[in-house]
Amino acid sequence: MDMPIPNILIWFIFLLPLASFVLISFFTKPILKKPRLSGYLTIGAVAGSLTLSIWTLISILRAEGHELVIPDFNWLTINGVINIQVGLVMDTLTAVMLIVVTTVSLMVQIYSQGYMHSDPGYHRYYAFMSLFTASMLGLVMVNNLLLMYVFWELVGLCSYLLIGFWFHKPEAAKAAKKAFIVTRIGDFGFLAAILLLFSQTGTLDIAQIHSLALTGAIGGTILMWAAIGIFLGAVGKSAQFPLHVWLPDAMEGPTPVSALIHAATMVAAGVFLVARMFPIFEHSPDALLIVATIGGFTAIFAASMGLVMNDIKRVLAYSTVSQLGYMMLGLGTGGVAIGIIHLFNHAFFKALLFLGAGSINHATGTFDMRRMGGLRKVMPWTYFTFLIASLSISGIWPLAGFWSKDEILVSTFDSQPVLFYLAMATVFMTAFYMFRVVFLTFGGKYRGGTSSQTDTRPHESPMVMIIPMVILSVLAICSGWFNVTGDFGHLLGHGAEHGFIEGFFGILTHPLPWISLIMAFAGILLAYAIYSKNWISATKVRKFFSPIHTMFFRKYWMDELYEDIIGEKILNKGIFARLKLFDSKLVDGAVNGVAEAVMTMGRAIRQVQTGQLQLYGIFIILGVLAIAIGLILWG
Amino acid sequence: MEVGLEHYLILSTVLFSIGLYGALSKRSAVVILMSIEIMLAAVTVTMVAFSRYIVPTELTGQIFTIFIIVVAAAEAAVGLAIIIAIYRRRENIDASKIDLLKW
Fold this sequence. Notes:
A: 635 residues, two-stranded antiparallel sheet, 4 strands, B: mainly alpha, 0% strand
C-alpha cells in the first residue's frame, strides 16, 4: 500500500455497492433466486469499499496538502452556459466519512446475516442496504452541489424504503412516509440554497463557492440565507429540532437499518453537509449562531424525552437526536473538526447500541424494556458490548465518547456560556437514560419478553451477530484515541498536536473534564439508585414529576402539533379546503360555465331545424332569388 | 302573331312556378310528386324551345328531353313506392307531419 491509490479505484469505492445493488435487483433475485448470495455480494462489495477507503485515507495522509486531485469530466452542458462537471473531492473530511460509512455498513451487513436470517424480504433488504451505502458514499465524495443533492435525495429514498421495509405493518408504512415528508421540508431549504448560490455565483462546484466566500465575492445577507437554507436541509436529515419527529418513528424498520441510519448514513448526512459547506457558515456569524443554538437546544430537548421512553429503540433514537445536537453544537462553536470527531466516535458506539438492542430483541422478541430484565447472565456478550457503548456515549474517560464530548464542551464553554450549561445538563441526562436502559434490560429479573414467549428462555445471539458487535466495541473504546494527540483534529484543520501519553492523562489535569465526568457519574448513580437498587421508587419519582413526565412522555405534544393542528386543522381544513373551494368553484366553474353557455345557445338555435322539408325548400328558393336579384342589380 | 322563343319561355316559367308553388305548399305527398312532374315538364319545354330556335339543325334539346322523361318516370315510380311505404306505416301521407329530420 505504499503507492497512492489510482484514480479509477477511488470511483470504485462508490461503484462497488452500487454494482451490488444492480446485481441483486436484476440478477441474483429474479434469476438465481439464491438469497445467501445477495448477502455475500453486499458484504463483499462493502468490504471492498472499506479496503479502498483505507487505501484512500493512507494516500491522502501522504499526499501534499492532504488532498488528492481527481480530474473532473463534463457531465452536461446547457446552451454552453451552464456547464456541470462531475468530480470527486478527496480531502481528509471525505476520507474520514468514507471510513465511518464503510466500517459501520460492513458491520451492519454482517450482523444482518444473523438478524434477517429467515426474513422473506432478504434479497430486497440487501439490495436496499447496498444502495443506501452507495448513496452515502457518493454523497461524501462528490464535489458538486447538484450531484450532492441527487445523492442526498437517494439517501432519503433508501431510508424511506428501509424504514418501510415491513410495509405490510401500517405503523411501518406510516413511519416511512413521515420520515420522507419531514425530511423533505428540510430538503426544500437545501434546494433553495443551491439555487440561490447558483444564481449568485454561476457555479455549483463546492470548492469554487468556498473560494468565492473566502474572498468575499459573495457575502452578507445572501451568504447568510444560503447558509440557513443548507442548515435547514441538515436539520431535516439530521433530525434537529423542530424536524426531529421522524427519527423516533423510524424505529419501525429492521434494527440493523436503524443502526445504519443512526450511525453512518442518513443522519450523518446532515452533519456532514454543514461540515462540507463550512466556509459558507464561517463567513456568516448569524448562521453559525443558529447552528450552535439549534444544536444545543436539540441536545437537551431530545435527551429529556429519552429519559422516559419505555421502548429501548426509542430511547436510543432520542439519544441519537441529542448526540446529533452535540455535533451541530460542536460545528457551530468549534468548527469542522470538533463536529466531525464526534460524528466519527458516535457512529461506532451508536451502531453498537442499536446492534445490541437488535440482539436483545432477537432473544426476547420485544423492544419494551418493561418486559426485559436479567439478561446479563444469559447474554454476556451483548451485555458487555452494550455496557461499553453506554459508557462511551455517557462520556466516561478514557472511552471514545469522552474525547469528542470534551472537545465540544470546551469550545462551547469558550464561546456560548448558556449553551454550555445546557450541554452539561445533557451530559447528566445522557448518562442517566443510558444506564436506565442498561439496568432495566440487563439487571434484575427476567420479566417475560413477549406474551407468546413467556416460557422460552432468552438466549445469546449467534456468532455472526456477536462478532460485529465486538469489533464495534473495540472501536467504541478507542476511536477517540485518534484525537488524543490532536492529530485527527489537526487533519481537519483544528488544534495543536502533543504526545499521546501526555494527552491521554494530561486532559485530567483540566477542571472541565472533571465536571463532565462528575455529571456523568451522577447520572449513572441516579439510574443505579432508581432502577437497580430501588433506593428511590421509580413510580414515586414519576408521580412527583407527573406533569413533566407526561410532557416528556408525550414528546412535548410535537406529533399532535404537527399532525392534528398543523396537518389537519391548518392545512387540510384551512388552506387546502380553501384551495379546494377555489378549484371546485372557480376553475371548475369556468370550465362548466363555458359548456353550459354553449348548450343554452344550441338549445335556442336548434329550433330553426323544424324537420319540415317544404319550409327548407322555401328558404332555398328565397336564397336563390336573393342571389339572382343581387346578380341582376350589382352583377 | 308570330309565336317566338319568348312565348315558350314564358309558358315554361309559368308552368315551373305553378309546380314550385305546389311542391312547397301542398300537404299531400302525391300532389307534391305531381307538382315536381310539372316542374320537369316546364324544363323540357325550355329545352326543346332552345334547341328549335338556337340550333335548329341539331336535336340536342330533344335528346335531353327524352332523357328527362325517362328519369321522371323512374323518379315517379320510386317516389310513389316511398309514399306507399309511408302510408303503410303512418296511415296518411301528410308531408307536414313527416318531420323526423330535426333535432
